[in-house]
Amino acid sequence: MIMSYLAVPISASNPDKAAEQIKAALAAGAEILELRTDYLENLSGQMVRELVAAARAAGSKAVPLIVTCRDKNQGGSIGYPLKLRLDVLVAALKAGAEFIDFELDNFLRIENQERILVALSQSRRGRLILSAHNFSGKFDDILGLHRRILSICPSAIPKLVYTADHINDCFGALDLLNRTGGERIALCMGEAGVITRILAKKFGGFVTFASLAEQCATAPGQLTISELKDLYRYDAINAETELFGVIAEPVAHSLSPAIHNAGFASLGMNRLYLPLLVQAGSAGFDSFMRNIIRRRWLNFRGLSVTIPHKHNALAFARSAGAKIEPLAEKIGAVNTLVLSAQGGIRAYNTDYAAALDAITSAMGIARSDLKDLNVAVIGAGGVSRAIVAGLNDFGARIKIYNRTVEKAQKLAEDFGCEYAGLDELDKLDARLIVNCTSVGMYPNVDESPLLEGCLDGEMTVFDTVYNPAETLLLKQAKKARARVIDGVTMFVNQAIAQFRLFTGQEADAELARKTVMNCLS
């Protein structure tokens, strides 16, 4: 199998800062260093020779070097002239760099091609990475472009990088890695393309790139090396790794990868949990599901589903002939999909029990004590359906408040509840208030679904938002001396239930909560 390397770009503005970054990258576990010389001010061939020498002397063991001086039209930092950029790459080869990265478009010019090939022929170990970037979207024919690069220079390593506007755009890069052999690099830029950076190793991509820190990133969507190694278990990924993930929009705030990957690691499982940004509503969701089911070689085995796709998950499960648990059908929302190696789907809802347990535990009551309790539920989405169904099953008196009154009405009719618009929240009369909206979720931490003065000390306030653990709503509740239930409790409860469905084993509840709280702190 092709060796996959974790490369850290060195993007400093001067040699001294570059030397500091090199030491930090090696200490963090970089397997290749990419010297992005287009970030260096007052660049010269001599500067690059000295930088290569400094990189060689920095670590206890030599790591390979890629020297890049990117054309500004393809993502370069400083717009250096072509002649200087060629001088830099030639100097890097003479200094002993293992790889130089040059743009395919510029390589097509015969005079550039001849100079690079002559320099490579005079290098004992130098290799050429021929790269193509598309910052506006997908390549029209990525497989054809891969073939074209190899036809132009059979010894080159093709590097194909493009922007993913939707997660479904990633399948072109993943298909390329699956269908081709040899050394090749295929990655997607942007938040929607993050999975290609994590999965490059699983599918034999020659290199994936991770920055030292967010501010050092050299491309949109580039993870940090600590995220890749610690959160996404990069060192444990191999061709047999089974995949799981959370489907959401947005997804960057989600702590599901942290909690599930910690659980997999604690039990020594060859499994990886990914953030899956799925946009474009039900159409985007359905297309994503069809893409992963059709590609069984991806080895997806389980999916968590959250805002705004819990209804979409149920609709897809029905259309795909999935085995849907009766509770999920009754609730009208799915938050867990389990996929078999043969393509079968099972659908569940773990929010129902997680929420009931969080409420009854915090209030110190049994589920039967919920009978006749006045409850205000804010929101009418997927999590609302699960909580309303649970409270309704045990006889609570529920009133649903939602911005779109028609959605509140539909949910209320399904479960025999009352409903109202958000403009009536200042008149609420309830002992238990449950926020099922994303209001107050990171990064909008200064928002609350309620105005000051709506709460009192006789109330219990439950916010299903878990990031941050203490939302503005919960701060308001504490100020009013109300009992509070944070979203972390429900989140951990439902995640533990999902882990059991995914693996057939019990998660460590203490580890799960500790992982979440460490992330939030």
Q: Can you walk me through this structure?
A:
- By secondary structure, the protein is an alpha/beta fold.
- Helix content is 39%, strand content 19%.
- It has 3 domains: 5-231, Alpha-Beta Barrel (TIM Barrel); 245-349 and 493-520, Rossmann fold (3-Layer(aba) Sandwich), CATH 3.40.50; 352-485, NAD(P)-binding Rossmann-like Domain (Rossmann fold), CATH 3.40.50.
- It has helices at 15-28, 45-58, 82-94, 104-107, 110-121, 142-152, 170-179, 194-199, 225-231, 256-266, 281-294, 310-319, 326-331, 351-363, 382-393, 405-415, 472-479, 487-503, 509-520; strands at 5-10, 32-36, 65-68, 99-103, 127-134, 157-163, 185-189, 207-209, 242-248, 271-277, 300-305, 323-324, 336-339, 345-348, 374-378, 397-402, 418-421, 432-435, 460-463, 483-485.
- The strands form 3 sheets. An 8-stranded parallel β-sheet has the order 7-6-5-4-3-2-1-8. The chain has a 6-stranded mixed β-sheet with strand order 10-9-11-13-14-12, sandwiched between helices. A 6-stranded parallel β-sheet has the order 17-16-15-18-19-20, with helices on both faces.
- The longest helix has 17 residues, at 487-503.
- The radius of gyration is 26 Å and the shape is elongated.
- The two termini are 40 Å apart.
